[in-house]
Write a structure and sequence with these properties.
Chain B: GO terms for molecular function: protein phosphatase regulator activity. Chain B: Belongs to the phosphatase 2A regulatory subunit A family. Chain B: This is Protein phosphatase 2, regulatory subunit A, beta a. Chain B: It comes from Oryzias melastigma (Marine medaka). Chain B: Keywords: Repeat. The structure holds two protein chains of two kinds. The longest helix of chain A has 6 residues. Chain A is an all-beta fold. Chain A is built from two helices and 32 strands. In chain A, a hairpin with a 7-residue loop joins strand 14 and strand 15. Chain B is an all-alpha fold. Among the domains of chain B are: 109 residues, Leucine-rich Repeat Variant; 115 residues, Leucine-rich Repeat Variant (Alpha Horseshoe). Chain B has 36 helices and no strands. Chain B is flat, with a radius of gyration of 33 Å. The chains are: A mainly beta, B mainly alpha. At the A-B interface, strand 10 and strand 11 of A face helix 3, helix 5, helix 10 and helix 13 of B.
Chain lengths: 430, 632
Amino acid sequence: VSGVCFSADIISTVEFNYSGELLATGDKGGRVVIFQHEQEVGFSKNRPHLRGEYNVYSTFQSHEPEFDYLKSLEIEEKINKIRWLPQQNAAHFLLSTNDKTIKLWKISERDKRAEGYNLKDEDGRVRDPFRITSLRVPVLMPMDLMVEASPRRIFANAHTYHINSISVNSDHETYLSADDLRINLWHLEITDRSFNIVDIKPANMEELTEVITAAECHPHQCNVFVYSSSKGTIRLCDMREAALCDRHSKFFEEPEDPSSRSFFSEIISSISDVKFSHSGRYMMTRDYLSVKVWDLNMENRPVETYQVHEYLRSKLCSLYENDCIFDKFECCWNGSDSAIMTGSYNNFFRMFDRNTRRDITLEASRESSKPRATLKPRKVSTGGKRKKDEISVDSLDFNKKILHTAWHPKDNVIAVAATNNLYIFQDKIN
Amino acid sequence: MYFSGSLLTTEEPPGREGCAVVLGQKPRSAAQQRHSVTATVSKMAGADGDDSLYPIAVLIDELRNEDVQLRLNSIKKLSTIALALGVERTRTELLPFLTDTIYDEDEVLLALAEQLGNFTMLVGGPEYVHCLLPPLESLATVEETVVRDKAVESLRKISQEHSPVDLEVHFEPLVKRLASGDWFTSRTSACGLFSVCYPRVSSTVKAEIRQHFRTLCSDDTPMVRRAAASKLGEFAKVLEPEYVKSDIISLFTALASDEQDSVRLLAVEACVSIATLLPQEDLETLVMPTLRQAAEDKSWRVRYMVADKFSELQKAVGSEITKNDLVPAFQNLLKDCEAEVRAAAANKVKEFCENLPEDNREQIIMTHILPCVKELVSDTNQHVKSALASVIMGLSTILGKDNTIEHLLPLFLAQLKDECPEVRLNIISNLDCVNEVIGIRQLSQSLLPAIVELAEDAKWRVRLAIIEYMPLLAGQLGVEFFDEKLNTLCMAWLIDHVYAIREAATCNLMKLVEKFGAEWAQNTIVPKVLGMANDPNYLHRMTTLFCINALSEACGQEITTKQMLPVVLKMSNDQVANVRFNVAKSLQKIGPVLDSNALQTEVKPVLEKLATDSDMDVKYFAQEAISVLALA
């Protein structure tokens, strides 16, 4: 495993496009940085497409800080989510969102420039208008490749609460956006209206018991989407049944084990991320301590449960005090749905192989990620006695958290965001 | 206008204005264009041509200006550029440049796509029309749907200008390239081009085109399948009858059972055109199974589409199938579990009933449709109720007097009492249909409370809506009923606290006077309006002026001079400046109605006095009135 690292502001989202050729990150400063996979020339034939590095392709300011004067609220520029659109022509498109406003960006290349003016010389001097004796039509000349990012549409004013998810539908013409209490359905070409498809806001806000934490469209069925809640449940809705999806068609919930009940049970069961598998058969949810894989055909319990950092169970009290217990970890699938990845603390991230049930803890750090270096598995000791190479739970750094990770849709290339660093690791896992 | 911007630094060249006129014309036709440029060219040949080239040079340079507005302006004058360049240079230089200029803003690309559709003469006529294909081809692949659609529209247009040979040599290969393009944008564009070239090519090429269309109907991306589904009907129309049966029906069936409901719902539209192409005896086996399936689709959006297209479907399949199949289907749609579907179906109730075969129309409506309609009157969803309310009155003409009184009247009355104002408004706005059949008296007892309630609704938009129906109601109910019951309402609106209502009320009075005549106005409304001139609230005093503005013409010279003018003149002493300058505006407005004697002796002194007012606005409007009325 080798690594490359880039420095930026605190990264708030990471996302590969559909081909994996591009990787977008968003940060707290409202910037979007896009990396492109560059083929290395002259590399050995048996490993053709790996080893290429991801280099910066385009950087642009997606969102600016704003102020809502009616509500006296500051609107942060932080990019909450980025989603790529399926490629439709030579240009690439992505949606980026902060708490309130979703924007559609076009990233396009330009390698030709028009030359020749009638009223100016090549050096820009103005010509005497009396001496124009013939007309010149500009000619296109090749030039250095230029990448342009231009805002195409702005989808604003539809969310009262903070947007936590956006997801492009498989019909290629709509997408959904979810905030704490509502989910809206948009047409990608229409910015002045959206349809509210889920609204869980109670008439009386004092009766509020749960919020929407994440939502995603099914990868193939354009009528199906899921949303997760702070109570640890997931609802699957079918848009064919009714225009309003207030009633779910499936409800996924694992009965709570009464023996492990504690003050923190509800907080740690809150789901921070939900992702469909590429096949569309499964979905994965992340709560504070574990990752669960659900079969869409079985609602009463997950088919697989992986502990991410079970050793923190005894530390919940201090994690509550320093607010870490509310951290929203994301999770992702590999291209063939055979492995999953999610983050932890101390710059550790975890991978689980679904077939062998093997798991591994890896660390994203500058020391371990010199180019071509191999990542060593890390272990956290839970018992009293600490073995060599192990780290004690007490010495974990809770400020170094890995919340956002992404997996290349085809290859074994992963992107891991550790605060303001983006690490890209490639080649075989486990 | 385009001389601003980049040109600000240059000196004004002589002759600029003359040429600007030539360019300023918006050419309508190629003939006109030729004419205007001939002028330019002859001038060029006459003296020195430099100054005539100058504006064209500006236009060409501004194709690349940083300001979008200037680029757009240049693109819109592309024909002028092309004319100046001549057909040869347009083909060899301008078009290649434009082909690669697809980085621009949407509005520029849209304008370009549109221009190129009218460019045939400018590239040398039909013989060279294929030169326009490359730029339009690149425009047909951009991501912006409006631009793509416009490019396709222009391609369709110029396809007619291709000779049959050129069509096969140049146009058809382009369609094929688009149809097998890598990106779905090009494939969606291809869908709209098949039908224009199909009728004019050889049978081998025809077979290829059919094959391409088939491929696109089962494309991987839903975007392309949707484009194909939406063009299916159009393509079917140009196909030979045997292929409609062998090709189109299977494609139609496949699209109508697509896994994505966004594709299936478009197949419903195609159903209408396909059904019209097939002989009646084939409909049952080839189209009806699919249509039945669509009407019961699991997805509400598909059922909605069926409901929305119901009248077209009904016409396309004919009366026999309507009786046997569509009546039960329509009943189901009216009872659908999704409110959106019920509302769409409710909207079609009148049209559906109208188009039923006359021999047993009444029986079908009474036994099958009316029971469903009755249920909808008390639907839980207000959109459904208001959709129904907007058409239900139309049933009375179909059912006749007795049925209307016995069956429909109770429904109208129930809807007039509906909690939702929109429902009541929709009933009231359609009173004319029922008036013809049973006379409005039957309803008037329920009508009045409904109107009064709407007139006092807390939402000003509701009040505004009912005001707009007042002239209609007045016409239906007659002057007596109006004076007795509604006049007070109309006057009350004049002092509403929302300006939009006061304004609408003023306009309403004018329409009433047009309806009932000047004499009625003099007796009923003029005294009340003039009475408001002494109101302590200056807003109400101004309303008097606004009413006078609106009424003077309808009331005529006599009433205006004798009754209104004195009041206006008296108000010129008002302490509020807003009232005073509105006096000036009113005088300007009613001046033409007055006789010249009154103008000179009464109006002129007052305006002259106002023209020396201490308030700037009063002065301004007084002076304006003086000049407009030519009193200076």
